[in-house]
Design a protein that fits this description.
about 325 residues; eight-stranded parallel beta barrel; two-stranded antiparallel sheet; globular; 11 helices; TIM Barrel; alpha/beta
Length: about 325
């Protein structure tokens, strides 16, 4: 206690709560557990293939038959959730591989559930990896036709659910895509399946390495007419509100690091679980800096994920999932 102007004041020394790791752990406000993390997986056509992604050191494309070995590693690390992206050998104008019952992702989902039934399987729902033009919807007269795309997204979501997906994640940023998918799942008697909307998906410069990994660069133009304009925060919250109203169980902010304010505002406004995607560009920048020995890779990756969690995300999709989970297990 100290006296000031005749008043007795409490003397508070904040450093008392930082004196040892035990004390710091005792009063820690935010923590990450492997169960909070989702590992993205790129699945490609072929047999016996584990193919490195040049722009994303440590990330591979796997043929369906090679998935089990990676799933085993993830399970051993404590990561219990994955999200699948297809890298097909054949593409067409309508992205028909996305909703083919015998397509790449349905086959991968069946293999996943056969080998690792307790893993939470999330299927990304979009056309961009499957269209010859690389856009997320059907092209009509040089523009993306929102309403013509919706039935195809719904068909894909139903096929993925039938193949074993626990959760479908529409990422095309078409208006009313969640409603179309929720309605289709209900009609197919699979309304229990979870829908995670890529609700606030911004037209970001951080997606470059992903587009190499998935082979999904647009053949013309860009995606700014349907992905969100980065300066807009209020619009992002409205997108999330609409997705919840249409039947989304989880809403997402993508990318994460440059949009922590959106995550925070969403956490304050919505009761629904919030996911954040720590995207490819964020991952590759850390990898590049670490390869030049400018930073401690794992410490920086953990600090980034901690910031995303602290901002309010319940779920973090990250290419660092296995690495950070192993590090967390050692720390404990």
């Amino acid at each position: 206690m100290v006296e000031e102007g005749g008043r007795i004041l409490r003397e508070r020394r904040m450093r008392r709560l930082r004196g040892s790791e035990g004390i710091r752990a005792l009063v820690r406000e935010t923590s990450i557990h492997p169960s909070n993390l989702v590992a993205p997986i790129f699945v490609r056509d072929g047999i016996g293939i584990v193919e490195p992604v040049e722009a994303m050191p440590g990330v591979n494309r796997y043929s369906v038959d090679r998935l089990p070995e990676y799933l085993e590693r993830l399970s051993e690390s404590g990561v219990a959730s994955v999200i699948l992206f297809g890298v097909p050998g054949l593409k067409d104008e309508r992205g028909s591989g996305a909703y083919d019952p015998a397509g790449l992702i349905p086959r991968a989902l069946r293999k996943l559930k056969e080998h690792s039934p307790r893993t939470v399987a999330i299927a990304d729902v979009c056309l961009c990896e499957y269209t010859s033009h690389g856009h997320c919807g059907l092209v009509q007269g040089g523009t993306i036709d929102n309403d013509a795309t919706l039935p195809l997204l719904a068909r894909a979501a139903v096929e993925y659910a039938r193949a074993g997906a626990d959760m479908v994640a529409p990422s095309a940023m078409m208006d009313r895509q969640v409603l179309a998918i929720r309605s289709a799942l209900r009609e197919a008697s699979m309304d229990e399946k979870i829908v995670m909307g890529y609700s606030a998906k911004f037209a970001s410069s951080f997606y470059g390495p992903f587009r190499e990994a998935a082979g999904s660069r647009p053949a013309f133009g860009d995606r700014r007419s349907y992905q969100m304009d980065p300066p807009n925060a209020n619009e992002a919250l409205e997108e999330m509100a609409q997705d919840i109203e249409e039947g989304a169980d989880i809403v997402m902010v993508k990318p994460a690091l440059a949009y922590l304010d959106i995550i925070s505002r969403a956490r304050a406004r919505f009761d629904a679980p919030i996911a954040a995607y720590n995207v490819s560009g964020e991952y590759s920048m850390v990898k590049a800096a670490a390869m030049n020995q400018w930073i401690d890779e794992t410490a920086v990756a953990y600090e980034m994920l901690l910031g995303i969690k602290r901002a309010g995300a319940n779920i973090i999709i990250t290419y660092f999932a296995e690495q950070i989970a192993k590090w967390l297990n050692r720390e404990r």
